[in-house]
Amino acid sequence: MGTLDPLASGVLPVGVGNATRLFDYFLEKRKEYIAEFTFGVDSDTLDSTGTLVRGGQVPDERKIEGVLPTFFGDIMQVPPKYSAKNVNGRRGYDLARAGIDFELSPKQVHIYGMELMGRVEGKEDTFRIRISCGGGTYIRSLARDIAAALGTKAVMSALRRTKSGIFTAENALPFSFFEGEPSVEELEKYLIPTESVLTFARLELNEKQEKKLLQGQQVCVEVQDGTYKIYEDERFYGLAEVREGKAKAKTKLC
Predict the structure, then answer these.
(1) Is 146 helix (H, G, I), strand (E, B) or coil?
(2) Domain identity same for 14 and 131
(3) pLDDT digits over 187-236, tens only?
(4) Quick one: which of 113, 157, 186, 216 could link to 48 by a disulfide (CB 3.0–4.6 Å)?
(5) What's the Cα-to-Cα distance from 132 to each of 33, 35, 55, 141, 214, rounded to whole Å?
(6) Measured between alpha carbons, how far is 32 from 81 in angstroms, rounded to an integer?
(7) Number of domains observed in the structure of the chain
(8) CA dist., res. 196 & res. 25, Å (int)
(9) 8 A C-beta contact, residue 200 and residue 229
(10) Is 82 in the same domain as 140?
(11) Would you name the residues annotated as active-site residues?
């Protein structure tokens, strides 16, 4: 459910079976990263995997700390050209690799907060920053924009995602677990029940309403518009959407 940049590591939620249908419900989830930004260098990919060009000063910690709060809240951000953004039916990275010039429109993202953790040991030009942000944020673009605010250049040189929604590094499985080709029984020990990862309230229905809803019909309810969990004979069934007092089953997850 999501992607990581080629040089990145960390938390990547994986849906199994009907849980893959949850993708759209996790698009806006809050994420946390520990990123390393190297100053005084630029690249076509905005990270250290691209063609590097030296240029610009390396700011001190005080200046970096001073500019970070200016990025908190809702900000407009231009995605990297080397990204999966769609441009007239083609991916941005395909166009960029083909040498085709194009522009991407800025999009609104949300930054909950950033904390400068200090210089990376042995690297005078590289700083580690903890970032808490909403879905759709490009950390590579943050490196570019923070550097621009300081009158210099920077690229993302390392990235680790420590949290994605309710999923954290502490309750994640190491990739080495999967390299060992675990059995189905071993995997099942670590599966998280679909119901438990959803924070939506339960839609309370009587027996007649429940039957109609699960048959694909709309039912009238007296609750606020939104997404709700629904059940079949007390067994979690999936999700329903309520609009203007009418509920309709939308996603089966059991």
Answers:
(1) helix
(2) yes
(3) 888 888 889 888 899 999 999 999 999 999 999 999 999 999 999 999 99
(4) 157
(5) 7, 11, 28, 15, 39
(6) 23
(7) 2
(8) 14
(9) yes
(10) yes
(11) 5
